[in-house]
Design a protein that fits this description.
With about 190 residues, the protein is an all-alpha fold. The chain contains 7 helices and no strands.
């Protein structure tokens, strides 16, 4: 039964999310937490792993959640679930898009979807920032933790480097190295 639930949950996520993997994050967070499949901290760790491993973010997330919840078969079910809607929709769109691409309604839909996707991605970024920077809830105690300042500095440096078009692989490696070095140097607890 868990396998069908994984498939249907990720099918729904894949079906109702536009804008790529990060736009799916609020839905993935809601579903995994409400179903009790993992904690917010575990989800944050999976986000970091999904971002650091090759392949599309959404597929990596679905695979990790499925593996955590139902083993290998759970991974297969959730991965198929998240991929299937896009596969079906792209087949249909590819078949009919050429006929309708100049249609005002189609142009309007495409124009409306772009800001919605940006909003979903911004929501995911805010949710991740709150979970990462304020793991015990928003309070002033976080400013007493040196790990908070390290995270902020790394985030700012990585943002600046990303805006300067530094290759993403270099950013990921640099973030990992800085995180490991800071963790060992400051003996920070692992979440």
């Amino acid at each position: 039964m868990i396998y069908l639930k994984l498939f249907l949950t990720f099918f729904k996520i894949g079906l109702f999310t536009f804008g790529g993997g990060y736009a799916m994050l609020p839905l993935i967070q809601e579903e995994t937490l409400s179903n009790g499949w993992m904690t917010n901290t575990e989800l944050m760790n999976f986000v970091a792993v999904s971002e650091s491993t090759p392949g599309p973010f959404a597929i990596n997330m679905a695979t990790f959640v499925g593996t955590q919840t139902g083993g290998i078969l759970g991974a297969v079910c959730s991965t198929l679930g998240v991929v299937m809607p896009s596969f079906i929709i792209i087949l249909i769109v590819a078949k009919i898009y050429e006929q309708f691409k100049k249609n005002k309604a189609v142009k309007g839909v495409m124009t409306g979807l772009r800001p919605a996707a940006v909003g979903l991605i911004a929501s995911a970024a805010l949710s991740l920032a709150i979970t990462n920077f304020f793991p015990s809830g928003i309070n002033l105690d976080v400013f007493k933790n040196v790990g908070f300042y390290i995270s902020v500095v790394v985030c700012i440096v990585m943002t600046v480097l990303a805006l300067k078009k530094v290759h993403p692989v270099k950013l990921i490696v640099a973030s990992a190295v800085i995180g490991i070095a800071a963790g060992y140097a400051l003996n920070l607890p692992l979440n």
